[in-house]
Amino acid sequence: MLRISKLTDYGVILVAELARLKESECASVPQLTEATALPAPTVSKVLKHLTRVGLVRSYRGVRGGYRLAKQPRELRLIDIVSVFEGPLSITECATPKNVPCEHHRECSVRRQWERINEFMYDTLAAITLEDMLKTDEDLLVRLQITGPKLPKLRPMFRPSDPQVEAQIRAK
Prior knowledge:
Elements: H1 6-19, H2 29-36, H3 40-52, E1 56-59, E2 65-68, H4 77-85, H5 110-126, H6 129-132, H7 136-146, H8 162-170
Antiparallel strand pairs: 1-2
Helix pairs in contact: 1-3, 1-4
């Protein structure tokens, strides 16, 4: 299963919370901990990563805390995800450096993996932090109009057979 790490998820949650602040406001670690229900040490760790790469700014003093370094419409989801996950690469051969593996000469699916990787990158690059704060319908409409060519979007598959569902949950 492809899955982002908890730190990445927490990073998106915290950045989204910072996006809700007024432009001149800052949020402290205790405020963000309370607003997100994330543990304070985790909030601090994630904010340090985001500050180090310049997506978030920290301010000292009585009214200090954290706030976004850019407007929510300027921050892409790929920028946040890459902080914690590194460059997007669904397979070894689909890395940005395009380093061939030992089987690249015989591989009949390499180009397809590269295309899937590009699609995933384009999708994450098309979604801004501002989009993440919208309703599901607003985001899907915008992606279908301006984003990468997406397949027809539909609800997640839900098996109707209880035995199949039990097998999937057991994995």
